[in-house]
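Retro notes (design track)

What went well: tokenization of the new backbones is finally stable.
What didn't: we kept losing track of which sequence belonged to which structure.
Fix going forward: every design gets posted as structure first, then sequence, in one message. First example under the new rule, 145 residues:
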């Protein structure tokens, strides 16, 4: 068996395992009624079968290590880039909505506190923002100037 055939077999195995009706979303848009869309979905996907998805075990997230500061000294540079961040929450976490609201207030745009304070009040930077990512797995929180 060639390497290409081996890769093709692995790809097919992955496809057969994960591309199943239980792990898919069908979206239809356009000038079509619900009845027409349902009939088309049944016509083209009724024979699509698949078993249950394998359970996915998330990796354990280690406890945060002590904070580290990295400084790159570049004499003559006109600008700096400062980032601070860490792990965030899963989207299913009960505190996710509160975290999203906090991020919007802290750094979600030009009316947020980071931007207001560091640009408007102090004149330190052109802009400062924060961002939260969350999904099935824990995301990240990052603030930057």
């Amino acid at each position: 068996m060639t390497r290409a055939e081996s890769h093709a077999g692995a790809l097919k195995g992955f496809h057969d395992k994960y591309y199943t009706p239980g792990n898919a979303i069908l979206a239809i848009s356009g000038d079509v009624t619900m009845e027409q869309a349902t009939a088309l979905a049944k016509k083209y996907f009724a024979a699509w079968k698949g078993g249950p998805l394998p359970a996915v075990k998330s990796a354990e997230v280690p406890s945060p290590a002590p904070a580290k500061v990295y400084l790159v000294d570049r004499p003559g540079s006109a600008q700096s880039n400062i980032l601070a961040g860490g792990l965030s929450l899963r989207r299913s976490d009960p505190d996710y909505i509160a975290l999203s609201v906090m991020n919007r207030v802290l750094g979600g745009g030009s009316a947020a506190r980071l931007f207001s304070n560091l640009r408007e009040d102090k004149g330190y930077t052109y802009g400062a923002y924060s961002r939260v990512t969350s999904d099935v797995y824990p995301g990240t929180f990052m603030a930057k100037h």
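Added context from the reviewer: The first helix runs from residue 3 to 18.
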